[in-house]
From TrEMBL:
<dbReference type="InterPro" id="IPR006153">
    <property type="entry name" value="Cation/H_exchanger_TM"/>
</dbReference>
<feature type="transmembrane region" description="Helical">
    <location>
        <begin position="337"/>
        <end position="356"/>
    </location>
</feature>
<keyword id="KW-0812">Transmembrane</keyword>
<feature type="transmembrane region" description="Helical">
    <location>
        <begin position="276"/>
        <end position="299"/>
    </location>
</feature>
<keyword id="KW-0813">Transport</keyword>
<keyword id="KW-0406">Ion transport</keyword>
<keyword id="KW-1133">Transmembrane helix</keyword>
<feature type="transmembrane region" description="Helical">
    <location>
        <begin position="305"/>
        <end position="325"/>
    </location>
</feature>
<dbReference type="InterPro" id="IPR038770">
    <property type="entry name" value="Na+/solute_symporter_sf"/>
</dbReference>
<feature type="transmembrane region" description="Helical">
    <location>
        <begin position="30"/>
        <end position="49"/>
    </location>
</feature>
<feature type="transmembrane region" description="Helical">
    <location>
        <begin position="247"/>
        <end position="264"/>
    </location>
</feature>
<keyword id="KW-0472">Membrane</keyword>
<dbReference type="GO" id="GO:0015297">
    <property type="term" value="F:antiporter activity"/>
</dbReference>
<feature type="domain" description="Cation/H+ exchanger transmembrane">
    <location>
        <begin position="12"/>
        <end position="389"/>
    </location>
</feature>
<feature type="transmembrane region" description="Helical">
    <location>
        <begin position="224"/>
        <end position="241"/>
    </location>
</feature>
<feature type="transmembrane region" description="Helical">
    <location>
        <begin position="362"/>
        <end position="383"/>
    </location>
</feature>
<feature type="transmembrane region" description="Helical">
    <location>
        <begin position="194"/>
        <end position="212"/>
    </location>
</feature>
Length: 401
């Protein structure tokens, strides 16, 4: 069965890589296709794909994927863009993101009155970060205005790193409430995770930078092996921080930010392999998500869950973004466009997997809602990206004419 699973995965990966241009120029993208392949080929349907992965295995796969994605996104982030284009990314991160979390909590309080308020805040945080990979048809489409593309790209690259400490804080407060431990102990736990994670990320990035400079001066670098430098650094940041009791995600995010700043122009060459490695792990994650995770929670998708998922992709996201962009020169449709293309993806999956073994009283409802929202996001954002981008291009062409 192991080789059968490998053969099915490899065959689909091969075929999709050959015909990707045909699919992605239409209404499909990689995450959507691999998730649908997992659903169709997995145990819930045809059954030729039978991955035997327990919760710990899914968690490890998702965590490693997010660690490398966090590192790569942070390293790639052009922080100067934060101050350009009417501070669009800053508005999305500092105004839109907090309002999205608050809106998600309020809607959850309305739809799930039986769920404790802290757990509703955890659900809202899980579904706040956006996924650049799901919105690639938008952020890489030259038909979309450059400020919009850059704003969405920087937002998705940084908001998952911002949500990690918030999620850790809420989980720490939840432990304090459930065990009646002093609040001080919960806050100390959070500060340790954040502090250790940040220190590990900073320390390893500085060490790697100095070693790279030393190797470069002596002409010891080889192009083939240099491609593994940043993937190795990303995994080292994550694993060492986790081992020392810190947050590996904070370490990967901080290490990526500092590495991108220190390496400057050299970072783009070094990041190629890291991005390709992250893409491969993401493909496997989406396949497993479709084959195992979605079928496991399908029976828990109640009408309230579906309604929250729809609202999460629309009102909960779009209204805060619209408010955050007030006072800019962007027209109403562009603001709605930016609000709509906040797809939920890998970060939300990892955050959901992180709480699978936690002591949430309403774990089933929280997980089902998060998974349903990601599923709906992959479908709706995947099929709407190219048509709406084409409409934006046609509007721009009409104005020029």
């Amino acid at each position: 069965m192991l080789y059968q699973n490998l053969a099915v995965l490899a065959a689909f990966l091969l075929l999709y890589s050959i015909f990707a241009g045909r699919f992605e120029s239409r209404l499909f993208n990689g995450p959507l296709m691999f998730m649908l392949a997992g659903l169709l080929l997995g145990p819930a349907a045809i059954g030729v794909l039978q991955p035997h992965i327990n919760t710990q295995g899914i968690r490890l796969l998702a965590e490693l994927t997010l660690a490398i994605v966090l590192f790569s996104d942070a390293a790639n982030a052009n922080l100067r863009v934060l101050r350009q284009h009417e501070s669009l990314p800053m508005r999305l991160l500092l105004v839109g993101l907090p309002l999205t979390v608050v809106a998600g909590w309020l809607v959850g309080y309305w739809l799930f009155p039986q769920v404790p308020v802290l757990e509703l805040a955890i659900l809202a945080t899980i579904l706040a970060p956006t996924d650049a990979a799901l919105g690639k048809a938008v952020v890489s489409n030259p038909a979309v205005p450059a400020p919009v593309r850059e704003g969405l790209n920087v937002e998705s690259g940084l908001n998952d790193g911002i949500c990690v400490p918030l999620l850790l804080l809420l989980l720490g407060l939840l432990v304090e409430v459930q065990t009646h431990e002093p609040l001080q102990l919960a806050l100390e736990l959070i500060s340790e995770e954040l502090g250790i994670g940040a220190l590990v990320g900073i320390g390893l990035a500085l060490i790697a930078w100095q070693l790279l400079r030393f190797s470069h001066r002596h002409h010891w670098q080889m192009p083939m092996w240099s491609q593994l430098t940043l993937p190795g650094l990303a995994l080292l940041c994550f694993a060492l921080a986790q081992r020392l009791g810190g947050s590996g995600f904070i370490a990967a995010f901080v290490g990526g930010l500092l590495s991108g700043y220190l390496l400057n122009r050299q970072k783009h060459t070094l990041l190629l392999a890291s991005e390709e490695f992250a893409s491969l792990l993401s493909v496997i994650t989406w396949l497993v998500f479709g084959a195992l995770v979605v079928p496991a929670y399908w029976s828990s998708f109640t009408p309230q869950v579906w309604l929250y998922a729809v609202l999460s992709l629309t009102l909960i996201r779009m209204l805060p973004v619209f408010i955050s962009l007030l006072g800019t020169s962007l027209d109403s449709e562009t603001r709605l466009f930016i609000g709509w293309f906040g797809p939920r993806g890998l970060a939300s999956i990892v955050f959901a997997v992180m709480i699978m073994d936690s002591n949430l009283q309403a774990a089933s409802s929280v997980l089902a809602t998060a998974i349903c929202t990601v599923l709906l996001s992959v479908l709706l954002h995947g099929i709407s990206a190219n048509p709406w981008a084409a409409r934006m291009a046609a509007r721009r062409a009409g104005r020029r004419a």
